[in-house]
Amino acid sequence: MKFRETAKTLLFRLLVFGLLILIWHFLASRDIWPEYLLPRPLAVVETLITRFQDGTLLEAISVSFRRLLIGFGLASALGFFLGLFLALVPSADRAFSPFIIALQSVPSVVWLPLALLWFSLGETAIISVIILGASWNMVSTTTSGLKNVNPVFIKSARTLGAGKLSVFYRVMLPAALPHLLTGLRFSWAFSWRALMAGELIGGGSGLGQLLMWGRDMGNMRLVIAIIFLIGAFGFITDNYFFKKIEDRVLERWGYQSS
How many CA atoms lie within 13 A of 249 on its CB side? Predict the structure, then answer.
């Protein structure tokens, strides 16, 4: 039953994707815009293949993913421990939660001028933009997950003789795990956005700089190819990695049926 639903969902997505490609091809073939502004889908695919073959895209992807993994890892760790502190110290939560919410709404690109002033152009500035752009969401989800653990679970554990540390590791963390996974999932998306903001303006190689180079050279095929590639990476990691893990945890915790 689940396999059939998954197959239907996949088929529907492929049909929608195919329809969008057809609309794109139709608009490009009508010469509404010149070819250098709206290339045909096949031309973009040819550019992707060429750039993969000459190693340009592979090098840019490796550089961007290295930055992404470092920034995401640091942002997730920082967000988790700060959220943990706020959840366990109510007075700190009352004092800092409005500022966390305010910082969460700040676009990643806003942090770039500060990062450039502090660290100049280069790797450190880009990674710092990822950390500043992706950590606040993790703070909020961690705090919310730990604060909303069912009090019955905690009282039951204490009644059975569990100490504070044992209650935290064996009750609170497992109960908050769905929230933590959701936080990681959204932090990954924010990390991607922050990475592109940093690479577009902050210098260095990577997909963002390759995108800027394509724009400066008037190579719209390359620009659209990289946009498509970034979207594909985001879709694959979200739907076939983070969401799969999240669904398994929710099934195990009884929040959704298998």
Answer: 16
Sequential pLDDT tens for the chain (258 residues): 566 777 787 788 889 988 999 998 898 888 777 888 888 999 999 999 998 888 888 999 999 999 999 999 999 999 999 999 998 888 998 889 889 888 888 888 888 888 888 887 778 888 999 999 899 989 999 999 888 888 887 888 888 777 778 888 888 888 888 888 888 988 998 898 889 888 887 666 788 888 888 888 888 999 999 998 988 888 888 888 888 887 787 777 666 555
Element spanning 164, H or E: helix 164-167
61 assigned to some structural domain: yes
Domain residues for 144? Answer: 56-252
Calculate the CA dihedral of residues 136, 137, 140, 144 and round it to 10 degrees.
-160
- Are the CB atoms for 221 and 47 separated by under 8 Å? yes
Distance CA 64, CA 92 (A): 36
Domain count for the chain: 1
Burial class (CB in 10 A: 0-12, 13-18, 19+), 222: buried
The type of residue at 37 is L
Q: What is the CATH number of the domain that holds 170?
A: 1.10.3720.10
